[in-house]
Amino acid sequence: MTLRVSVIGTGYLGATHAAGMAEVGHRVIGIDVDPVRIAVLAAGRSPIYEDGLEPLLVRHTRSGRLRFTTDYREIADWADVHFLALGTPAGPGGAADLRQLEAAIDSLAPMLTKPTLVVGKSTVPVGTALQLQERLRALAPAGDRVELAWNPEFLREGFAVEDTLRPDRLVFGVQSTAALDLLEQVYAIPLTEATPVVRCDLATAELIKTAANAFLATKISFINSMAQMCQAAGGDVVLLADALGYDKRIGREFLNAGLGFGGGCLPKDIRALAVRATELEVDVLAQLIEAVEAINEGQRAELAELTVEQLGGDVTGARIAVLGAAFKPGTDDTRNSPALTVANRLHAAGARVVIYDPQAELAPKADFTQVATVDEAVTGAEIVLHLTEWPEFRSLDPVALGALATNKIIIDGRLKLHAPTWRDAGWKVVQIGRATSL
Ligand code: UDX
Fold it and tell me: Which terminus, N or C, of the chain has the lesser number of Cβ atoms within 10 Å?
């Protein structure tokens, strides 16, 4: 059944959700306070680099199934269901800043005159949904006939469209069967593909999302602490991770040791969870997350220190080539990028940092020189740092690059390069947690 769906907030999550909802057959209006973004989207263009998003925007803005507006009057009574897809950035002390969600509610609520379902998708501290519902009911003419549900989103950057159209699972946090029925109609298409559904209360739905993030981060920090152990004891963390991964209870994913996690979501969301855990006096969870964060930060610090060490203890004036600036491959996003933390530290220590990334564009005021090819980055470099594992870096030619570099030293911060090939070409390859590299 075709529904009328509004998506409030057209950032990363909202733009993808709006396009995905149109793709599964609904009529969709995306709304945002930013007129520039709305104009870009309405022209069928994607404001972000995300595989597969633009074709959906083109197709559905042309067919008329997907529209964009800045005017709440167009969506208020029109939509059968409103999705909240607003950002929850880090606020004071790392707690989630809910002002975008609150502002959206304040704009929408006074226009809601009939029974309405509003569904949150953003990542929020547990307890937020009920608070927002109170705010909504206080402002809406329809009062208690307005209901809030929570349907968290798990999409990964670089796979946002795929994750939206073919989710691993759907979580419906609801308070009534009417809300559940409506959500099942909204997601009728993924549901026919046997997608597992967890039907639960609001608090569980909110917690599922933050728990998923915290677990993924914990997995990464665990393997990074094992990389330290391998380094100390003389083992190989990649083989160790492979062996762990064969155990179905563990699984191989998110066991790639290296520079650790970054990006606009995981670090901020686990911090917000730690803050919420402390508020609720669940100190054990806050402590667990703090350990995960400390390990993650430690990886960045260690890589910078290792670089200085490889250059004899002083990088003043040294030209350092950095391969990768995005927080992970497949995106142009550099928010909380481990690669840039390392680059910043080396810059602060006096190095001349030259960065190449296939997609990410650094702000012109950045402290580094950004170049358009790997060759340019490596030319004259005293050391090369592989910090974001773009697939193209795996097929680089170490012989040709060796002729351009001043020193043939490479630190593989993501443990993804084929070290023997580089060594055969005369390079010193340093990989933390792979003893053979030392
Ligand atoms: C993440 C979650 O996966 C997603 O479900 C949530 O909705 C938002 O946050 P994303 O930020 O796109 O998605 O990144 P993800 O692919 O999860 O990677 C996170 C970080 O972990 C990256 O910096 C990546 O390089 C790092 N990572 C990942 C590792 O260091 N090792 C691994 O084994 C896996």
Answer: N
In the prediction, which pLDDT does 189 show? Answer: 84
CA distance 296 to 298: 5
Task: Output the residue whose Cα is nearest ligand 1's atom 19.
Answer: 261
Structure tokens given for 214: 């915290």
Task: Name the phi and psi angles at 351, rounded to 5.
Answer: -80, 160
Mean pLDDT score, 363-371: 86
Asked if 214 contacts 277 with a C-beta cutoff of 8 angstroms, the reply is: no
Ligand 1 pocket: which of 166, 273, 328, 331 to mutate (most atoms within 8 A of CB) = 328
Q: How many helices (H) and strands (E) does the chain have?
A: 17, 14
Q: How does pLDDT run across 404-425, given as a tens digit for each residue? A: 999 999 999 999 999 999 999 9
Find the Cα–Cα–Cα–Cα dihedral 343, 346, 348, 353, rounded to 10°. -60
Its pTM stands at 0.95
Is the ipTM higher than 0.85? The answer is: yes
* pLDDT (tens digit per residue) in 199-210: 999 999 999 999
Q: By the 8 A CB rule, do 100 and 179 touch?
A: no
What residue's CA is closest to ligand 1, atom 31? Answer: 256
CATH superfamily to which 235-438 belongs: NAD(P)-binding Rossmann-like Domain (3.40.50.720)
Class of domain 4-200: alpha beta
Ligand 1 site, CB within 6 A = 154-157, 213, 216, 220, 254-256, 258, 260-263, 265-266, 327-328
What's the pLDDT score for residue 363? Answer: 85
**Which tens digit of pLDDT belongs to each residue from 243-257?**
999 999 999 999 999
